[in-house]
Amino acid sequence: MPLLVTGTIGIDTLHTPTGEASGVLGGSCAYFAAAASQLGPVRLVGAVGGDWPEAHERQLRGFRNVCLDGLERRANSQTFAWGGRYFENMNRRETLFTRLGVLEEAPPTVPAKYLDSSTVFLANTHPLVQLNLLRQFPKRPFAVCDTMDLWINIARPELMQLFAEVDGVIMNDEEAMQLTDCRNPVTAGRKVLEKGPRQFVVVKKGEHGAILIHRDGVASVPAYPADEAQVIDPTGAGDTFAGGFMAHVARSGQRDFAALRHAMAWGTVLASFTIEAFGLERLVRLDAGQVNDRFRAYRDMTAFDLHR
Ligand code: AMP
Q1: How far does the centroid of ligand 1 lie from the alpha carbon of residue 193, in Å?
Q2: Interacting residues of 227 by C-beta distance below 8 A, sequence separation 6+
Q3: Residue 292: beta bridge partners?
Q4: DSSP readout, 220-277?
Q5: Beta bridge partners of 200
Q6: What is the C-alpha to C-alpha distance for residues 168 and 222, in angstroms, rounded to an integer?
Q7: From the centroid of its chain, how far is CA 40?
Q8: Which atom of ligand 1 is nearest to the CA of 11?
Q9: Which of 148, 195, 200, 241 has the highest CB neighbour number within 10 Å of its CB?
């Protein structure tokens, strides 16, 4: 099941209690692709402007399973840029600035050779860009989307249109609660499910794990336990969770409740690496052995023996 992602490719400026990084490679699509590529091939569709640094392109090309044939370079445009600051409790952050740049222009085109993608992730970007991308496929793929507070605030009707056309939504608890006016993440997830997605909603709760609310049941997974000293920069944790989740769905070829629950574990493991360094640094240094070792450790931590 070929996997494709669209979303933002950005230039990020990050402030965390542990330090700062300015002008680093980021964006929902970049994090997703870097994580998914640890489990299998991923096709990227996105756009960058004339200010896109050569070094960022090299870093993205360093992920050998990421196909960049769908990356549009627009000489007269500006790359999406975002700045964020984390509070002392790194589960919370504020956006310092968002420069939309290429997101205000025509959405990127899906290359003809990608139109057979049967698993599609619409990473966080303007909902109209997400919808436009989804509608380019002649045969409806298994489609899952993410979103963020900015789009809930400025493009809610378009977001509702999008939700009605996807199989699943992955979003964080704050955003699910903001969208549904509800303070409980499970109830908020159920209310998001009522808004349209065909099968499921995953509500991410940062260091508290994630909940799968599916038409066939509910499942909960804990986060991989990280010590304070290991948490350097949480940026992209949500996108890398989605990358691990969708890459596992794509390679397993299964999309039922049990498969999605299993995929949540892969998402959790990939996200646990991202937070260990600024930007994509940790994912650049990651290899299959490290991913599989941590998956085994996580499985052992979370398994129950019914006979004891
Ligand atoms: P996460 O920490 O998983 O929410 O993802 C953070 C990434 O999302 C950063 O690399 C940003 O460049 C990107 N980002 C921030 N705001 C937006 C937005 N409104 N739409 C799309 N991507 C965004």
Answers
A1: 23
A2: none
A3: none
A4: EEPPPP--GGG-S--TTHHHHHHHHHHHHHHHH---SHHHHHHHHHHHHHHHHHHTTS
A5: 168, 214
A6: 20
A7: 16
A8: 12
A9: 241
DSSP 208: G
> 46 and 60 in contact (C-beta within 8 Å)?
no
Cβ proximity of 15 and 42 under 8 Å: no
Phi and psi at residue 36, to the nearest 5°: -60, -35
50 CA distance to ligand 1 middle (Å): 20
DSSP 8-state class, residue 104: G
* Residue pLDDT, tens place only, 97-146: 999 999 999 999 999 999 999 999 999 999 999 999 999 999 999 999 99
Rounded Cα distance, 36 and 100, in Å: 25
Atom 19 of ligand 1, nearest CA residue: 150
Neighbours of 143 (CB within 10 A): 23
- Structural contact between residues 24 and 142, judged by C-beta atoms closer than 8 angstroms: no
Dig out the tokens for 102 from the structure.
Answer: 């290429």
Model's pTM, two decimal places?
0.96
User: Angle at CA 243, nearest 5°, toward 260 and 209?
Assistant: 60
Parallel, antiparallel, or unpaired: how do β-strands 119-122 and 142-146 relate?
Answer: parallel
pLDDT per position as a tens digit, 167-216: 999 999 999 999 999 999 999 999 999 999 999 999 999 999 999 999 99
Instruction: Name the amino acid, one letter, at 189.
Output: G
Q: Whose CA is nearest to atom 5 of ligand 1?
A: 236
The single-letter code of the amino acid at 127 is P
Give residue 5 CA to ligand 1 midpoint distance, Å: 14
- With the most atoms of ligand 1 within 8 angstroms of its CB, the residue from 12, 95, 124 to mutate is 124
